[in-house]
Design a protein that fits this description.
By secondary structure, the protein is α+β, with helices and mostly antiparallel strands. Helices cover about 45% and strands about 20% of the residues.
């Protein structure tokens, strides 16, 4: 028997956050640099937020209830890059942050936007072989903003591009994972009127794109 979807979603987020904390704690024990301390502290605070949100969800909070705030997109991407950088070194592949020259700011639910990107990064980590690369970046278009996570690893066949957002579906069965991450990411995206899609050559390159309409831009 599987837990309810909202609980499963929160457990997935907790698992990701705890994994990051464990990695940075080990690193901090070896090298107590201020940068590592800052990320570790921030991640502990993030875990507290997740636990608080879990409590709210079981207080009948609807995900469509928006808690909007101004989000500086380059700052958010930089934060995620620094958070996941240590783990990429442990996994022995490279994580890059593509240059994003526009100081774009949007008004949206910061928590759900960040959680969606975290799921996409976590998914890329699981499916990128050693010595390959994962890229996090953004692109401004007339119709809105595209945030993307791209990796060179295991491609996704075209006929599976939509199926992978279905709960429990996996291109290759992995019994260590329930196959819920991408369905959670899409749920978060659609609850905020974003769209989440994937493009893959079917062999190696995969790019997940989170499209945020221009109505969210600050004028």
């Amino acid at each position: 028997m599987h837990p309810p979807p909202d609980l499963e979603s929160s457990l997935h987020q907790i698992q990701t956050s705890v994994g990051i904390i464990r990695g940075y704690f080990d690193l901090f024990c070896m090298d107590p640099a201020e940068e590592n301390k800052a990320v570790l502290t921030g991640e502990i605070q993030h875990l507290s937020k997740i636990l608080s949100r879990l409590s709210q969800l079981y207080g009948n909070l609807d995900l469509t209830e928006r808690k909007t705030e101004v989000v500086d997109v380059p700052e958010l991407l930089q934060k995620l890059y620094l958070t996941f950088k240590c783990r990429s070194q442990n996994y022995r592949f490279s994580l890059c942050l593509e240059k994003f020259s526009h100081g774009e700011k949007i008004k949206t639910d910061m928590f759900l936007l960040e959680e969606c990107l975290r799921v996409l990064l976590e998914n890329a980590f699981k499916h990128t072989p050693h010595r390959n690369e994962i890229c996090l970046g953004a692109e401004t278009r007339k119709e809105g903003l595209i945030l993307f996570v791209r990796n060179n690893g295991i491609g996704i066949p075209k006929e599976c591009h939509e199926k992978i957002f279905t709960p429990f579906f996996q291109v290759k069965k992995d019994y260590s994972s329930p196959g819920l991450g991408l369905s959670i990411a899409r749920k978060f995206a659609e609850s905020q009127d974003y769209s989440l899609s994937v493009v893959s050559d079917g062999e190696k390159q995969v790019q997940f794109s989170l499209a945020i309409p221009s109505i969210f831009f600050l004028s």
